[in-house]
Every structure is written in structure tokens, then in C-alpha cells.
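WARN no homologs supplied; continuing
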Amino acid sequence: MDDTPRRPPTRTVENGMVGVGAVLVFDGRGGAVRHEPAADEPPVPARGFKLVCGNSKSPEFKVWLKEELGAFNAELLTVPSTRSRCTVIEDRAMVVMRVARPGADPDDMGRQLLTIWIEKGRVIIASELNILDFVGVTNWISAHHAPVSPADLVARMGLRAADRLEPLVEMLGDRLDSIEEGMILQDHTKANARLADLRRNLINFRRIVWPQRDLLNTLEIEDLSFFSARDRLRLREASARSARIGDELQSLSERAVLVHEQLIDARSEQMNRTMLLLAAVTVVFMPLTLITGMLGMNVEGIPFAGEVHAFWTVCVGLVALAVGIIWWMRGRHWL
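OK structure emitted
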């Protein structure tokens, strides 16, 4: 048995998922340069900023965070959280964002956390998510279209998180369309269970989208000295994108409620038809039961008791009476 420790994949090391993380320097004009974490501190242009991202579970990255930010702030960046939020500490901000994992399904999104520390000239991201692939750093560098400020970076990450949610929301819309089509075709097979699963997924999606919109709104209105008017506009655009997804989810929720009411109405109508049929059968057979009960009394004086064809005569009379009652009920539009 080979006890030699396995070397992490090169791609994992390059993206800062092990060790002390990855470092990029943005020049503030759309350019970005990758630096080795162990190298000397790279110079940051006056208009630019530095991005440091690493795995929140990496011991080396945790040690680096404690040295740079202190034990308390480092703990804030690495402790698991359940909701997206924005916290401002003096002239710095901490943002917790939740995103869907790649290739997620509406029934199993596998949400991942991004914890972002924002200060003048520097952004630190702690997450188990592959940050550089998530934001598309390679495309930024090749196209010279990188973020120009920390707020621009956060806004783009918010937009990328929305990009991952939109296909899933469309899948939920398609499922609701399928359920509605089945209602129109009178196919109620498992409709209630499918609708319940859909409504549960909509609730889970809203727990991601609305807090994300709120944190972007909070970051926009906070009085951080290094935010420009353009930064606030970018954050407002990202917030509006999340709000549009939230509105679509709200619309789907309202449609799901209407479909649920239609399903209840359809079942009530089916129950009413069943009860009407049972009532009609009762009305038809009640006089027949009365007549046969009277003819079956074991007393003297029963009509036609000695006639040979009396039984069949009574049967024909009962059938005629039943047909007459049905015809009368149909004439009254009761059937």
C-alpha cells in the first residue's frame, strides 16, 4: 500500500483551493495580473485593488486571515452561515452570499457560501467554491474587461449568482406549466404531490434571492468612503437583477396557489358528481324498495299472490317505474 500523500490537482492549486489562496491585482482600468501567494507583496495601482481568495477550510488560509484581519474578523469570514447578509464594520464591509452549485437541480441546489471582506484597495474571499472559475477570471484577463473596483467585483459576483439561478427558475416554470396542462386535460395523476414539491422549491429559492437582493441594496446605501457613484450604480443593477428573479418567483408562487385552488375545485366537483350519482341511485331505488318490501310481507291479501306471471309483471312494472323516475329527474336537470 502506497502511503505517499496525494498531490492536489494543478488546477486546484492554481485557483487557491489549497494553501494560502490566490492573489490577483486589478489596475482599475479593466486589466488584471495573477501573482503567486508566496511571492513578495505585489504593488497595487492607485486606482486599482487586490483580490485574495482561498478555501475557507484550508488551515494555511485561516492562519493568513488571522494575521491580516485578526482572530475575530478571520472567524467571521470562515464560520458557516445560513443566510446572506451584509455587515459594515467602520469603513469595511463583510458580505455573505449564497450561490447554487454548478449543474444544480431545482430539487437539490447544493447551495455554497461566499464570504467577502471589502476594504479600500483589497477584497478577500473565503469559500469552498472555486472562486476564479466562478467569476471567470481567465476571460477577464484575456478580454481586458476585469472589475475596476471592489464594488464592481461584488456586483459581478451577484450577477453571476443570478445567472446560475435563472435556468433553475425556468425549470420550475416549465414544471408549473406541465401541471397546469395536466389540469386542463383532466389528468390529476400525482398533481397534488408534484405541486407540493414545486411550492417547496419556490420557498427555498426565495430564501436565496431575497436576502441577496437585500445585501446588495445594503451595500449600495452604506457610506463607505471608497465607493464611487459608478460603484453604487453597478450594485443597484445587480440588486435589480436579483429583484427581477424574486418577482418571477413570486409570480410562480401566485400561479401555484391558483393551480392548487383549481385542483381543490376539480376534486370538489368530482366529489359533487359522485354524491349526485349516489343520491340519484337512492331516489330511483327508494320507491322500488318500498314496493318490493310491501309485496314481500308474509300476510294474507298480497295482490297477485296466486298468479303465475305475477313475478315478471311486477319486475316489468318496477323497471318502468325506475325509467320514469330517471326521465323525470333528467327533465328537472338533476342528472
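The CA atoms of residues 106 and 171 lie 7 Å apart.
OK
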